[in-house]
Amino acid sequence: MSDLNLTHSGNGAHGAAPSNCGLQPQQGAGVAGLAAVAPPTPCENHTSIRILRLPEVIARVGLKRASIYLHINQGTFPKQISLGPRAVGWLEHEIDAWIAARIAARRQA
Q1: Terminal C-alpha separation, the chain
Q2: The CATH number fitting domain 5-108, selected from 3.40.30, 2.60.40, 1.50.10, 1.10.1660
Q3: What is the rounded distance in angstroms from the CA atom of residue 31 to the CA atom of residue 36?
Q4: In the chain, domain spans
């Protein structure tokens, strides 16, 4: 299993697509089988990196669990990140960017 670090490109773009703040996976060395994760540096538009659990994602986007996972499988919603063996979450800025993209698409239609 490879280890994973996150780095931040710092481009600070918003609203275009999920993952638009530049968080990129990077290979790194782990300790005792644990992934070494360097905390990403947030862009100028984010003061911190926040992880949302499913109930909060549901409340923010207005979709139910099944619809969220359907959109993930279709590649039209940000992928969840693993928090542990039975826990996942979503990066808040990716959810915010997804919502902003939906609003922008409505305005263009």
Answers
A1: 45
A2: 1.10.1660
A3: 7
A4: 5-108
CA angle (23 as vertex; 21, 29 as ends), nearest 5: 165
- Predicted structure pTM score: 0.60
Measured CA to CA, the distance from residue 57 to residue 74 in angstroms comes to 18
Q: CB of 21 within 8 A of CB of 12? A: yes
The more confidently predicted of residues 30 and 73 is 73
pLDDT in tens, 16-58: 444 445 444 434 434 444 444 445 555 666 568 999 999 999 9
Write down the pLDDT at residue 43: 62
Cα distances from 12 to residues 3, 4, 99, in angstroms, run 26, 22, 17
- Of the candidates 56, 40, 60, 36, the one whose C-alpha atom is nearest the C-alpha of residue 48 is 40
Question: Which structure tokens are listed for 6?
Answer: 């996150």
